[in-house]
Amino acid sequence: MALIWYRWLSRSFQSQSVSRALSTLKGDSSQQIIKSPPLLSLDLPDIWTSNSMHYDPLDIDKYSNESRARVIDGKLMAEKVTTGIAGEVIRMQEAIGMVPGLAVILVGQRKDSETYVRNKRKACEESGINFWLTKLPGTCTEHEIHEALSSYNENPSVHGILVQLPLPRHLDEEKILNALSLEKDVDGFHPLNMGNLAMTGREPLFIPCTPKGCVELLLRSDVEIMGKKAVVIGRSNIVGLPVSLLLQRHHATVSTVHALSKNPDQVTRQADIVITAAGVPNLVRGTWLKLGAVVIDVGTYPVKDPDSRCGYRLIGDVCYEEAVKVASAITPVPGGVGPMTIAMLLANTLESAKRAYSFS
Amino acid sequence: MALIWYRWLSRSFQSQSVSRALSTLKGDSSQQIIKSPPLLSLDLPDIWTSNSMHYDPLDIDKYSNESRARVIDGKLMAEKVTTGIAGEVIRMQEAIGMVPGLAVILVGQRKDSETYVRNKRKACEESGINFWLTKLPGTCTEHEIHEALSSYNENPSVHGILVQLPLPRHLDEEKILNALSLEKDVDGFHPLNMGNLAMTGREPLFIPCTPKGCVELLLRSDVEIMGKKAVVIGRSNIVGLPVSLLLQRHHATVSTVHALSKNPDQVTRQADIVITAAGVPNLVRGTWLKLGAVVIDVGTYPVKDPDSRCGYRLIGDVCYEEAVKVASAITPVPGGVGPMTIAMLLANTLESAKRAYSFS
Hints:
Two copies of one chain form a homodimer.
Chain A: H1 2-25, E1 70-71, H2 74-96, E2 101-107, H3 111-127, E3 130-136, H4 142-154, E4 160-163, H5 173-178, H6 191-198, H7 209-220, E5 229-233, H8 240-249, E6 253-257, H9 264-268, E7 273-276, E8 294-297, E9 301-304, E10 312-315, H10 320-326, E11 329-330, H11 337-356
Parallel strand pairs in A: 1-11, 2-3, 2-4, 5-6, 5-7, 7-8, 8-11
Antiparallel strand pairs in A: 9-10
């Protein structure tokens, strides 16, 4: 159902914005000295069309009907990380009488955002990290957010600040994120941080939590990254792009596939490691994968399920039932990337506090 | 000859630094809460070994012996750009009585750096852009460079500053580049700029000259980038990385190949567009290319040539005689990327001056 709605949205959206953007791109540029356009003028919405989602059900038959893939238990791995962090928090408190602190700004009443924030609060409580929450109505002004931000920026007990995304449309996300103190940007979304993540010889202050979590899952599953072919599906600023950059720093041969890629299934089928953050439920079918690939699924979407206690269940970018027959290891949804992302948020907050107090 | 020496250097260098770095990477990390290491600890010298450079001379026989590739005349295209810029400089001078200005800091006496700087000066003179040069001895202190930099940073007639790289080893390149005013960083090497180049929805102040030149050559050759498979060979901060980021902003499906990639030839053979900045003469053989690929060669290396008037000639990363039989279009070395890089430097300097004077 979600998929059908999505396809309709894709088609109608694509016929408007994309064609508008394309006509701008193809505009008469014979008068320009430089053909290269401003990059902003190139930006297009990353909408996966049904073409990208083709599926040949026969192909899958060549694989066994039994599950082959080892399940990468993100929940268990994240618990181990969280336990380790709790130990460090105690050690810090005993040594210098301080603990790390995380502040979250939540705007509006999106159900999913509220759930994420609740999980973050719970994880902080479990690991002994102080937690502050500023809830603002969906109709709030930029000024109100800036006030909350600047108070957290100045508070020495706060070592990490995050603005829960997405923000309501009337707010300028870029401007708000730019106002966040770099030293407390535990999400690592600032362009300066992104540049340092990308560039050899540089160290970002924080590696964004989800990409860091993906790599942590690979490392904890003893998956070799160096020299391997990795395909990242999706190129969003918050997941796809930093995942690609991070895998490259780990010496993978990285290809990034997006909604405008031709034959994304063929490219993906070359990969030893697939990390998918396309934002499209069930995009990656079994036929997209090389036999033995390792699959990390960042997507999470609720779909109606009358059999479930709460009336819905979560699915990812990957068609799990098919992928599990082809991959050698795979993260489940839920219980894969999600918990590890939160563990990495705690890790970044701890790291920031250690830096603030010169504690090692 | 250059290649033999290079291979020897690779082997001996690799046996030391790489194995040291690898042993650090593989060190006992069972005590760590987070397995993900600091990124700086992952950095390895990108050394192409002879394994990467294998060559099967039989493969090439299947292609015709006649050249097929259209030559992308970078010199001619750059002249057109430079003429356009000269016109804009005149228009600016007539309208507001100002012209753009570029300042270069050259440290030491590297022959290649001196040649590059001479070419930049000549291009500035041809297009009416003011040019300043500070030459410092190879033994100079960081303080002396910072003094020169800060004087150019403050001079309102200077709109672009570049420090000719590489610097002598005793100087801290990162620190020096960080001291350069962002608004005058026409090379675009600052990490903030790199982050804005990478991130959708952001516009860097300057796109680094060589990457911008590569894309300009593609656009002027009517090569479609969107949706195409592009392989970038090399991932240096000054070429490979920003080329990959820029091609992704242009919606190519980008794969980045580097010295630690397994089977770089196989990956490259998938590409519709190959941009190579590996720093290894003749690395890319004809067998690395798909029939009809478009090839942009950023490499430039002098090799001894008794038949040449000056005793040497320049070659690139690509084995031109072979590639020309397989590719559909290719840049020559010299006369391809080099002139266009300089033209993009002029373009960035003009852009910076326009921004400084709010002139459009």
